[in-house]
Amino acid sequence: MIGQVTTFIDVRGFGFITDPSGEQYFFHVTHFLREGAEGKERKPKLGEMVSFEPAAAIRLGRKTQAVEIRPLDVSVHAGIGALAVGLKDGE
Asked: What CA–CA distance (Å, rounded) separates 9 from 27?
């Protein structure tokens, strides 16, 4: 799946990813896989587009947990709206 990091609370190490349909997924920073980066560069950035897998067996409240999170090579400024349009157009 693909989505956008819409919330990240650095001191707690968790946040939320929103997919193009508006559904939110909880994530912990330990599931964020940025290859070749260390320290702060490894952490997710607000507005960053990512790919992820929903962990079907793990739900926190009403939110499914996202795992295997990887950054996408998409402009942060394009955002989820541009991604949704791209998906609609079949790109």
From this structure: 11
Parallel/antiparallel/unpaired status of strands 49-60 and 24-28:
unpaired
Task: Please state, as a whole number, how many other Cβ atoms lie within 10 Å of the Cβ of residue 36.
Answer: 6
Here the tokens at position 34 are: 């940025």
Task: Please give the Cα distance from 37 to 79 (Å, whole number).
Answer: 23
Q: How far is Cα 64 from Cα 11, in angstroms, rounded to an integer?
A: 21
Residue 61: what residue type?
Answer: G
Q: Residues 14-24: what's their mean pLDDT?
A: 93
**Rounded Cα gap, residues 84 and 19, in angstroms:** 9
Q: How confident is the model at residue 87 (pLDDT cuts 50, 70, 90)?
A: very low
Whole-prediction pTM: 0.72
Residue 77 corresponds to which tokens in the numbers above?
A: 């400024």
